[in-house]
């Protein structure tokens, strides 16, 4: 699953549900060029990640992508099936802009403030993904279906829950971006401050 997030504040915190697993977070960058805030921002528009369907994608300032795989242990118990454990492997990758050349000190300081705001925004999307995975773990572990020797009922119930949860996560991500990029939103303020020298 891939989630595109336009221009991006919460750090991932340890939680009891995550006691035996931990997300892997990576940051990838793409190079932008310019010797002014305006030039750098234009370069972002030209080189930012393309998201969306092939041929109709749009460029964004930053992007959050995740890869999720599972180790699940389905155990027949008499005529029932029990999902005794569900261990996720979650890798979250944030793609962010990075100046290719050296910036003068004043512009460098503006860029650092801008970049900090971008990653803070993206971390919220990352936290939403982690929350989704924690809910899947909580729902999965111990999931039982009677008269299910082939574990088909358990798998079907899990699949239906995953679909519902995935849709909710994507909607939450879209709602967050809509607020952040809406009137008086944090991201619009961040971009305005970067371009205006604030």
Question: What's the short story on this structure?
Answer:
It is built from four helices and seven strands. With about 200 residues, it is α+β, with helices and mostly antiparallel strands.
Which regions are unreliable across 5 or more consecutive residues at pLDDT < 50? Answer: 1-18
The helical percent reads: 40-55%
Shape: elongated
Query: Rg, please?
Result: 21 Å
Structural class by sheet pairing and helices: alpha+beta
Largest β-sheet summary: 5 strands, mixed
Series of H and E elements: EEHEEEEHEHH
Number of strands: 7
The end-to-end distance, rounded to whole angstroms, is 36 Å
Strand content: 25-35%
Number of H- or I-type helical stretches: 4
Task: Name the average pLDDT.
Answer: 87
Notes on the protein architecture:
The chain has 198 residues and is α+β, with helices and mostly antiparallel strands. The protein has four helices and seven strands; from the N terminus they run ββαββββαβαα. The chain has helices at residues 37-47, 105-140, 152-180, 186-196, and strands at residues 2-3, 24-32, 50-51, 58-59, 63-77, 80-99, 143-145.
């Amino acid at each position: 699953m891939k989630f595109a997030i336009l221009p991006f504040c919460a750090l991932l915190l340890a939680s009891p549900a995550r006691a035996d697993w931990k997300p892997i977070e990576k940051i990838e960058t793409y190079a932008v060029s310019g010797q002014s805030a305006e030039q750098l921002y234009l370069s972002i528009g030209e080189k930012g990640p393309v998201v969306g369907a092939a041929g109709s994608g749009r460029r964004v300032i930053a992007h959050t992508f995740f890869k999720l795989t599972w180790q699940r242990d389905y155990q027949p118990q008499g005529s029932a099936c029990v999902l005794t454990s569900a261990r996720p492997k979650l890798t979250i990758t944030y793609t962010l802009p990075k100046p290719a050349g050296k910036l003068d000190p004043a512009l460098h300081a503006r860029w650092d403030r801008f970049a900090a705001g971008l990653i803070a925004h993206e971390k919220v999307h990352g936290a939403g993904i982690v929350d989704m995975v924690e809910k899947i773990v909580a729902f999965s572990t111990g999931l039982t279906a009677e008269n299910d020797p082939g574990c088909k009922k358990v798998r079907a119930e899990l699949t239906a829950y995953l679909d519902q949860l995935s849709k909710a996560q994507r909607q939450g991500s879209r709602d967050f971006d809509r607020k952040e990029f809406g009137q008086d939103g944090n991201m619009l303020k961040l971009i305005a401050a970067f371009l205006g020298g604030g």
